[in-house]
Structures are given as C-alpha cells and as structure tokens.
Amino acid sequence: MDSLGDGRGMAKADFDRDGDVDLIITNYKDRAHYYVNKVAKGHWLQIRLRGRQSNRDGVGSIIRIRARGDRQMRVISAGDGYASQFSRVAHFGLGKNEVIEELEVLWPSGKKQIFEGVLADQMIEIDEDATKARVIMARQTASSPSGR
Ligand SMILES: [Ca+2]
Ligand SMILES: [Ca+2]
Q: What is the mean pLDDT of residues 14-38?
C-alpha cells in the first residue's frame, strides 16, 4: 500500500463492519483517502468496553487474549497519532483460530474479568459490571461468552 498524498492524520477502524481494519488518511490541501481492506483473511474478534467504576470507554484498560498458544494484548487508549483518533474498539486478528480460550480485561479500577471459550468473528461489548459479554455484531451464530 502506498499513497502519493501529503498525509496528516490516520485513523484505523473497521469502518465497513466486515471484520477487518480499514484506514482513513487525511491529506494536506486534499481530500481524505479511504482505504477499504480487501486482503485480510482469517478470523477476528472486536471488543468494545463499557466502564462503570472506570471511565465509560475503558481508556487505560488492558485486554489480553490467548488462542491456541498465541497471546495478544491491546491497551485501550485515547489520542493516538497526530490529527487523528483511532477507534476505541480493540481488534484482534486471529488467523486460523476460531475460539479464544481465555480473554482477560484489566480495568483502570483494578477489576479483572476473565472470559473463556469466546468465539471468533464477532464484536462483543464487555461491561465492567456484567458477567457476560454482549454480542453486538456476529458473522456467525454465537452464544454470549460467560465470564467469572
Ligand atoms: Ca473492514
Ligand atoms: Ca474487508
């Protein structure tokens, strides 16, 4: 991927809600460019946090997942990059893994939630006070993962 524009801000998010990360790049004295991801393959999981004791968007939270030995981590942040803002939805590319064995959310309040057996290919919302994650968008039939 390349761009001939004089780029400034860059935002990454799944703008078309098909499960992969797309890009919008703003340019100096030119229109913004929207890059639709048409090459990503594999499974994915998107997580939106809803804080209660912590801040509403869960900024500062750390999400860790483990899927077949692969471990990934995301930190929910605000104010990424110059003249831009990334989505606060955490996106995990999972490759061939269809199930996340363990998903851990560590909130700024100090609360820790652990969910097991979370299915791929969906967007879930995790409420700081809830024991189940709520499915917001699913590519496949999926039940709500239970937490402890
Ligand atoms: Ca997309
Ligand atoms: Ca796509």
A: 93
